[in-house]
Amino acid sequence: MLEEKPSLSNKMRISVDQEKLGNFSRNHVKFYLKYSSFVFRALKKPSFQKFLHWMLKKERIEEHTVNVVHVKVLPLRRENGKGIAGNCDTTRGRIRIYPKTVKFCRIFTQKFGRNTLLVYAGNRARAALIHELLHLKYTEDEKTVRELAKSYFCIFTRKRSSQSSHVLCI
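^ that's the sequence the OP posted. Answer follows.
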């Protein structure tokens, strides 16, 4: 009998902070729900899950250290006003992935088109998840995490580019 590998896919959830919904218009909430649903599907794709499993094994990061991956519906901004792609609570094993703002997506779509936005959104979420997973091992070493995340993301996109022409590096 085949041994079933633990999968991060089973730990992924779309989540929304109900108390913050009132700060957004109905159209914005609808947009963010579609965005988070798209990102959720992109992160759960078997090819990406297989890649993550390989990366975690290579880095000797145990999958059980991740309790949950929240794909957040609403964006989060730092105090300086810049958006956050993701964050990791290493003590709780909780990773959060955040969307870009409606305003950013509108401007991006006008410049590059809807299909390019979708590619960008999927790649941004994948890169953020790779980055946050590396924080489980390199808790206080942002420089190492950034270098490794860039390297691993390029490995994943190179592998994908041989299978598809719809790859956009971030």
